[in-house]
Design brief:
Helix content is 37%, strand content 18%. It is an alpha+beta fold.
Amino acid sequence: MTVLEKGNITIHTENIFPIIKKSLYTDHEIFLRELISNAVDAISKLKMASFAGEVSGEVPDPEIVIRVDDSNKTLSISDNGIGMTPDEIKKYINQVAFSSAEEFIQKYQKDANDLIGHFGLGFYSAFMVAKKVEIDTLSYQPGSPAIHWSCDGSPEFELTESSRTQIGTTVTLTLMDDEQEYLAPERIRQLVKTYSDFMSVPIKFDNEIINKQKSPWKESAQNLTSDDYLEFYRYLYPFQEEPLLWVHLNTDYPYLLNGILYFPKLRPDVDVSQGHIKLFCNQVFVSDHCEEIIPEFLMPLRGVIDSPDIPLNVSRSALTNHRTVRSIANHIAKKIADRLKSLYDETPEEYLRCWEDVGTFVKYGSLKDEKFKKQVEDILVYKTTYKPTETTSANDSPKIEVESDDVWQNVESEKQGEFTYEKAGYTTLKSYLERNKERHENRVFYCTDTNTQATYVELYKGQGIEILFMDSFIDTNYFIPFLEREYSEVKFSRVDSELDKTLLQEDKANEIVDPTTNKTRSEQIKEIFELALNKPQVNIRTEALKSDNPQSTPPAMVLLPEAMRRFREMMALSQQQGMEFPDDHVLVINTTHPLIENIYQLSQGSIVQASGDSPSQEMAKMLCQHVYDLALISQKGLDAEGMKSFVERSNQVLTRLTK
């Protein structure tokens, strides 16, 4: 064998290999990705040379072949690409050696774009797993000799003649003893599927093509059907529910960007703070951690982003901070907003189907991103108690129908006539304000908990007042205050914060002064409850609630003033604990309810016992406490001790009533 050349890679490279092995790449397995990527580059270069008329004869069908030799503990990657001349081997394979370790670090960590795509560094990743690396290559250039290059990981290399007769390159790795997992066929298949599945060149192993080759995100959106998008999603995320919607990215200015992003059906076990998007660079998988590219409020997105213009660090495993990354993040947010707007305008049924999962993140995006907020502010929808009739016009007063919760959930049940958001039980804030400006201008009544606030909602609905359901966890503490800043003239009132005057009626009988006590009936009822409850912090009010059927209204209601409740909720949130029910709240006694009238009559009992109260007065006190506890229960305001007392008192009341 004729030795063409021997030499040292460089006088400084005693520090290069430790950097490559220990610091440059965090995952040893990516060596196969790098070598396959180099092979694809070589095939692409031969194709370009052929188009330019520089190649004599036919160019063979491109392929990359992986082989394993268990007896010699070797792994080889072969391509039929452009090959290399002796001078090109020196230039590309040894280029790492042209600078000292210090210069190398400075050069490649400052500007990663000077590095990615260069054959040399990717090739040297082989030394993470191999104790010896050999190259057999034959250039497409006429008269160029076949060359064999070998290096054992020391600063020395050797160039000799090769027996190779086919244009292309084979890289052979003699694996280290502790890296022989890469001889296992299942490991090789797994690595190709992970990193090189969508490379356009067929990759053969054991006489079988083991990569998909076709990358849907590189296709034109016009060439893909819904089934194509769903099939790709199932391939990326098997055993998952179908996605809600998807967006196809395709732009070539001011950066190259392709991708398909999906908004998944959310499940309780999905961590929405972690990214799930796969980052590719020229169809080579780079990372599934690309949080910098995705706006924080769109973290649940899944899919693929592919861009050669995204700056990567030296190992291609993480992003570097760069204005291109920020620009791409803004572009993605805009495309998502555009997609939502098209759904809102063109297929409202689909929009509402997605809203239950998407809505919280759209609201969060409005809080975080001014541009995104401007795009989506007119398509934010809320469940509402408003239900239009066929004859309802824009000038009609809103018609409020009492419906079950299922109606608000079942969007698809609305099939008669033209579909509208209002028919499906949803509305925008703008529509709500316009519809109710005659009844309560610039006032929004809302509900955050359909269970605890059901009594209040029914009371408002009974008087034809429209209620918005703002029951997402983001609404109370964040989004409602945000809306109040955006619409400074609008006041938001939770249904249990106060009673609108529309709900109250004048009860002249309650205002007649009793000559024996010199007090009105309302004042006497208030005094009865104050004495029975003995809670100075509770502000007791008497009101006559409007109703065609007084029995259907609550005998008493607990109100939590809006400002005080919000302050307590924010304090609890900052301390990461639940809000304790405040001692200082409002108790409204409904003087029109028959139970309150009965309590009033009982309290007038004249037979006095030794305790100072008549039996009827004792019963009146117990009923006052009972009515109060019932009002607290509807607000989840009873603690363990309060609930115990309520149960005991309930038994006492029932016992007395059954004597």
